[in-house]
Structures are given as C-alpha cells and as structure tokens.
Amino acid sequence: MPFEESGSRSNLYYSFSVAGVHVVMLGSYTDFDAGSAQYKWLHADLAKVDRARTPWIVALLHAPWYNTDSAHQGEGESMRKAMEGLLYQARVDIVFAGHVHAYERFGDQCGPVHMTVGDGGNREGFALTFEKPSPPISQFQEASFGHGRLRVVNETHAHWSWHRNDDPDSTIRDEVWLESLAASRACGVSLQAHAPSTSDEL
Ligand SMILES: *[C@@H]1O[C@H](CO)[C@@H](O)[C@H](O)[C@H]1NC(C)=O
C-alpha cells in the first residue's frame, strides 16, 4: 500500500489524490482514538487537502459507521465516535464501507453520504435482516450481490449508481446525484482552499 507518500507510518491507513478526488483509506482494525497515530495522521492529512485541486474527498473503511442490518450491528460505532468529527469538519463527501454482506445508503444534508457496499459476493451468504421500519437517514437497503459505480463528472457533481448483479439485463437499483460539500453554500461553508496553519500541526 502506498502509505509513506502520504506521511503515514502504517500501511493500514493512507491517502492519495487522483483526478480531483482525495481518497482516504482508514483502518477499522487498528487504533483510532484521539491519541492514536491514525487519528493524528488523519487530522493532518485532511488539513492539507486543497479543495480547489481535489474538490472531492472520499473515505473508505471496513466496518460501517451506519448500519441498520442486524449483521455486524454496532461494530463500527467506537470508530465513528472517535473519528466522525474529523470527517464532518473536513466536509468529506462520501464514506464507503464493506463488512456487511448487503448494500445500504445513508444520507444526511451536510454530512458525508455513507454507503455500505459489502455485496460483492461471498460464501457466507447475505445479511438479510434490516431494521423495520427504516430510519429516515437509511435511504436504500438491499441484500443481493451487486456493485457500485462512482462517476465524478466535474468539481461539483458526481453520480453514484448501484447495480444488482442477479438480473439478466443490466439493472440499476439505486442511483443518486451527489454535490460536493466543498461547494455547498447550503451547508454554510466554502472550503475553496485550505492552507495548513500551524494549529493544524500535531
Ligand atoms: C457539472 O455537472 C453537472 C451535472 O452534469 C452540471 O449540471 C453542471 O452544470 C456542471 N458544472 C460545470 C461547472 O460544468
């Protein structure tokens, strides 16, 4: 894993930028509390992001922070409590997770969209039991094999689609247009360029 390039000392968490997207890979199974090396690295990494150069920030981790499936319920909760504030303040756009063998999408107005895409296929079968009724922030749930596609169209718009694999024809079951939170005036921020200041250094 290309971790040294992003100033990380562990291959369990690192970041890179590609085509207008700053991608942050986080480790669910290593320390993440405020005093941890991962936390300090994440804080410093997010402070360096220049949204004029990478208008999108996407984070990936293993155990979802939001999950209405009975499988692996609550397993991402301590990491969420420790790190969610950092991602929220940095206006991270999307958080992808796996772990739960199903697809679920969460949305909230000014926070990241959380997607669990744990449905690539596995020998253990599906995680079929979702909470009913769904809480409003859980906008789509389905336990079947599938895959997703994120198309970054430009600095403000991206299109996400989730495709079910079981059908004879190509089937998009869920899709949504996403607007970069860097540009969202509705959320009361404008993070065009964020130069690191001394207070960002830990
Ligand atoms: C970005 O893409 C969206 C969706 O296609 C479009 O509505 C918008 O005008 C585009 N913005 C720019 C600056 O091209």
What percent of the residues sit in helical stretches (DSSP H or I)? 10-25%
Question: Mean pLDDT, rounded to whole units?
Answer: 92
What is the count of β-strands? 10
Query: CATH first level: which class?
Result: Alpha Beta
The CATH topology is given as: Purple Acid Phosphatase, chain A, domain 2
Which strand order spans the largest sheet, edge to edge or round the barrel? 1-2-3-4-6-5-7
Give the overall shape. globular
Question: How would you classify the helix and strand content by structural class?
Answer: alpha/beta
Keywords: Glycoprotein, Signal
Domain Calcineurin-like phosphoesterase: 23-103
Protein name: Acid phosphatase
GO molecular function: acid phosphatase activity
Describe this structure in words.
One of its GO terms (molecular function) is acid phosphatase activity. This is Acid phosphatase. Residues 111-174 form the Purple acid phosphatase C-terminal domain. It is a single chain. The protein is of the alpha/beta class. It has one domain (4-145): Purple Acid Phosphatase, chain A, domain 2. It contains two helices and ten strands; from the N terminus they run ββαβαβββββββ. The protein has helices spanning 37-47, 77-89, and strands at residues 14-18, 21-25, 56-60, 94-97, 103-106, 113-117, 138-142, 146-152, 157-164, 171-179. The strands form two sheets. Strands 1-2-3-4-6-5-7 form a seven-stranded mixed β-sheet, with no helix packed on it. α1 (37-47) runs parallel beside α2 (77-89). The protein is globular, with a radius of gyration of 17 Å. 2-acetamido-2-deoxy-beta-D-glucopyranose binds at residues 153-154, 156-157.
